[in-house]
Write a structure and sequence with these properties.
The chain is extended, with a radius of gyration of 32 Å. α10 packs across α11 and α10 crosses α14. It is an alpha+beta fold. The protein folds into three domains: 66 residues, no CATH class; 138 residues, Hect, E3 ligase catalytic domain fold (Alpha-Beta Complex); 166 residues, no CATH class. It has a four-stranded mixed beta sheet with strand order 10-14-15-16. Strands 1-2-3 form a three-stranded mixed beta sheet, with no helix packed on it. The chain has a three-stranded antiparallel beta sheet with strand order 11-12-13. A hairpin with a 7-residue loop joins β11 and β12. It is built from 15 helices and 16 strands. Helix content is 50%, strand content 14%.
């Protein structure tokens, strides 16, 4: 049973609320009551429920428009509307819509601009700040206000990323401007922020004390514009988002050096962003990864063409779940039998209590003990049943996977469609094998690690 004060407490999205009231709750034998709206699914008196859902969503949409309008008005008036000002500023105590200079942070901002103009690149600046144990903005914010906590911030509070440095160097708010409307949600139903094009930003000049003068900011912008950008390469990346680091778990991204346009590698994104303090490079060449995966897929295709039995013989641990399924069935049966025994014992115990053959205190202790055991058994049955269903589904999936593979011919080269259809993820480790090549794990769908 689900009970809410009114239907708007269940949700203001009329499609989602309607799905639960009309489909999910009845299908799963769940009753629903909205007290103030006098909705009770057990009485089947819900003719007006869809209309109430529509009105609730309309109300949420109207509130969203009013809030957006209020924020837009504040932005046009040059008022800061974000939750926290940029690094280097605090909110004024008497007016939270204006910035006040944070002298300690402002010194760091000035140092970043000075170092960049003196010829130190962005990575060099990040290393200099790290060497002096200057806390990154997020760690400093958490230390003061306990906001935006993350495990990485705890472990690496001094690891400045190049992206953070660039964001500071390109932020015109340090010259005294207020920049609003950089991001917005696609609709009131979504909390995901989307970046607005620059022509939609609302910029108001000279709204607070500047940390960086406009001439210095202009020179930095010009210098950033002169930094040569790495040209886009026509080299396709079949493995985009598919390859993970065996140490930090982040993706390996495609990298091509300008001097070696035909030599592609996949490098750990954590290493590229923060250096060896967080993770190692342990790159793998694109060609090597392609060869290894192609060989694995072709071996699977050959086995599948020989039949499901050959496939299972080659990978018994990933394909044969008969023993585990039988064991789970026995466990479920044993637990159910014990529940039946407890029901009989409880019935006899109650009869003995009613007839005065057992004292009330002893009856209550035993009754509670059997109830607790029964609850534990029911939980165990649900757990075993869930694992049984998952294994059964996996066993059926393996058969489907083998059948799909048997329809392929031996591949001469990797195809992105086949790759995405068969491979779950690829993990690259730091250590190397006897042939001095990276250790690579390929996880196939339904099969797991092969």
């Amino acid at each position: 049973m689900v009970i809410t004060k009114d239907m708007s407490r269940l949700g203001r999205d009329y499609l989602s609320a309607g799905y639960y009231i009309e489909h999910y709750f009845p299908t799963n034998d769940v009753g629903y009551i909205a007290i103030n709206d006098q909705v009770d699914t057990l009485l089947n008196d819900n003719e007006f429920a869809p209309f109430r859902n529509i009105m609730n969503e309309r109300y949420a949409r109207d509130i969203s428009k009013k809030i957006r309008s209020a924020y837009h008005t504040k932005a046009m008036n040059g008022e800061f509307t974000g939750p926290f000002p940029p690094y280097g500023y605090d909110k004024k105590p008497e007016n939270k819509n204006q910035h006040a200079v944070n002298s300690a942070q402002a010194g760091i901002v000035k140092r970043i601009f000075s170092l960049y103009l003196s010829g130190v690149n962005v990575y060099g600046i990040s290393q200099a700040l790290k060497a002096d144990r200057v806390m990154i903005p997020r760690a400093e914010l958490f230390g003061r206000l306990e906001k935006y906590h993350s495990e990485a911030t705890d472990r690496f509070p001094f690891d400045w990323s190049t992206k953070t440095i660039l964001n500071i160097l390109e932020n015109s708010e340090y010259t005294g401007n207020i920049v609003c409307n950089r991001h917005q949600t696609s609709s009131f139903k979504s909390k995901k922020l989307l970046e607005n094009p620059k022509d939609r930003w609302i910029v108001t000049s000279h709204r607070h004390e500047a940390i960086i003068d406009e001439e210095t900011f202009r020179r930095v912008r010009e210098k950033i514009g002169l930094v040569p950008r790495v040209l886009k390469t026509s080299h396709e990346n079949l493995f985009r988002g598919l390859v993970r680091c065996g140490d930090c778990g982040k993706t390996l991204t495609l990298s091509i050096r300008p001097s070696r346009r035909n030599y592609a590698t996949l490098d750990c994104s954590t290493y590229r962003r923060y250096g060896k303090s967080r993770c190692g490079s342990h790159y793998v060449t694109y060609e090597q990864l392609e060869i290894v995966i192609l060989q694995k897929i072709n071996r699977l295709i050959s086995l599948a063409k020989s039949g499901i039995e050959a496939f299972r013989d080659a990978y018994p641990h990933q394909t044969d779940f008969s023993d585990r399924l039988d064991e789970m069935s026995r466990q479920i049966c044993d637990q159910e039998n014990r529940i039946q025994e407890i029901d009989k014992i409880t019935k006899a115990l109650y009869e003995n209590f009613v007839l005065g053959r057992i004292q009330e205190e002893k009856f209550l202790v035993l009754d509670k003990s059997y109830d607790e055991e029964k609850i534990t058994l029911i939980k165990n049955i649900k757990t075993f049943q869930r694992e049984y269903d998952e294994l059964k589904k996996k066993q059926e999936g393996v058969a489907t996977f083998c059948e799909r593979l048997s329809g392929f011919e031996i591949l001469a080269k990797l195809d992105q469609g086949i790759l995405r259809d068969l491979v779950e993820q690829v993990i690259v480790f730091r250590d190397k094998g006897a042939d001095n090549s990276r250790r690579i794990e390929i996880h196939f769908k339904f099969l797991g690690k092969v």
